[in-house]
Amino acid sequence: MTGASTVLSAESLGRDVGAVALVDHHVHGALATDLSRRGFEELITESDRPTPSWMTQFDSQLGFAVLRHCAPVLGLEAHTDPETYLARRTELGVEEVNRRLLTASGVGHFLVETGYRGEELLGPAGMTEATGRPAEEIVRLETVAEHVVAEGTDAAGFSARFEAVLWERSRTARGVKTVVAYRHGLDVDPEPPTLGEVTAAAGRWLREAERTGSVRVDDPVLLRHLIWKGVERGLPLQFHTGYGDPDLDLRRCDPLLLRGLIERAQPSGVPLMLLHCYPFHRNAGFLAQVYPNVYFDVGLAVNHTGARSAAVVAESLELAPFAKILFSSDAWGPAELHHLGALLWRRAMTHVLSGFVADGEWSRTQAVRVATMIGAENARRVYRLEGEPGVTVPR
Questions:
Q1: 70-109 pLDDT, tens per residue?
Q2: What is the dihedral sign for C-alpha 217, 220, 224, 227?
Q3: In this predicted structure, which of 5-14, 67-76, 236-245 has the lowest mean pLDDT?
Q4: What is the mean pLDDT of residues 114-125?
Q5: Which CATH class is domain 3-32+104-382?
Q6: PANTHER family given for it (predicted)?
Q7: What's the whole-number average pLDDT of the chain?
């Protein structure tokens, strides 16, 4: 294929990938309040430390992507400077910024995890109002447990109370999620704890909560209990794995550490969704290949690798069956992250798949079908999103 033909093929494939109404299977809400420059910069990095005065977070792959791809959506030239961008953001106001960026993302369905500082963000209803697209909830197991303790329980009654509240909270949810990676690490004992172990651990937790005033759950026995109750709930169970803020120990966030739990959970048939995975996404691909109940994405990494995101997406396509890979953004806060999560993923998929087509390894039809599977169809199947619109694949 000549150079001109290759470019035309990539442009044509890009239009088809751009037409997919994505299902963002793991996302948080957009911020409902305006941001200062400092506040904005704090939210385009996973660091939880103050930015040194001699640097800016705009000097990063994600920062450059904001100025390149979000600026035009707000009516500015691409590659504008941070000061001009943030002034325009303030001029438009958060509601208009959210409307423009969320709508331009082309996401057709949001599955919104509400467990982290959810009061500061648009919930599922707010995301629907801003976009006109359906948005449904993913329930965080640890948040449910912490609410149970905050509302009052004793150690002996904790297990039953948690299970009852979980079922009620997830009655209309599409999935549940655990942040065991943050609270302990993925190297937990894969066996379900006994009721006696849970009661004893709940007693320790309640005493510590009374002493400190904090109800954060980080006891490995209780975390295992929450996970197995999540499995019993029967909805897709999401695991944060890999890259995140310094609250986690990245060395203990390799999804390979979940292998024992994956094998024990397999008879349940519950889909186990490995989120983000970077830099362990090749390990996640192995797990998705060999275990029928495992799926994965590279969501968070796509935004933060920016212009290099095509390399991450390419590596995610190496081992796993394409029916086991999903799209997510893991956007939290600025709507720029929701927009870029979709845009950079589409650009990366187009770049990678058009290369396969140009090399004669894939047909164009295969490329469009795989992009549609990963971008939407796999999530519609796993989360049982009945009635979702399909995409006509050119023949």
A1: 999 999 999 999 999 999 999 999 999 999 999 999 999 9
A2: positive
A3: 5-14
A4: 92
A5: alpha beta
A6: AMIDOHYDROLASE 2 FAMILY PROTEIN, NODULIN 6
A7: 95
The Cα-based distances of 204 to 59, 182, 188 in angstroms read: 45, 20, 18
Cβ-based burial of 163 (10 A; exposed 0-12, middle 13-18, buried ≥19)? middle
Query: CA–CA separation, 153 vs 17, rounded Å?
Result: 50
3-state SS, one letter per residue, for the chain: CCHHHHHHHHHHHHHHHHCCCEEEEEECCEECCCCCHHHHHHCCCCCCCCCCCCCCCCCCHHHHHHHHHHCHHHCCCCCCCHHHHHHHHHHHCHHHHHHHHHHHCCEEEEEEECCCCHHHECCHHHHHHHHCCCEEEEEEHHHHHHHHHHHCCCHHHHHHHHHHHHHHHCCCCCEEEECHHHHCCCCCCCCCCCHHHHHHHHHHHHHHHHHHCCCCCCCHHHHHHHHHHHHHHCCCEEEEECCCCCCCCHHHCCHHHHHHHHHHHHHHCCCEEEEECCCCHHHHHHHHHHCCCEEECCHHHHHHHHHHHHHHHHHHCCCCCHHHECCCCCCCECHHHHHHHHHHHHHHHHHHHHHHHHCCCCCHHHHHHHHHHHHHHHHHHHCCCCCCCCCCCCC
Average confidence (pLDDT) over 338-352: 98
Q: What percent of the chain has pLDDT over 70?
A: 96
- In this predicted structure, the answer to whether residue 155 has a pLDDT above a threshold of 90 is yes
- Each domain of the chain, given as residue ranges in start order, spans 3-32+104-382, 35-92
Query: What's the pLDDT at 386?
Result: 75
Distance CA 152, CA 148 (A): 6
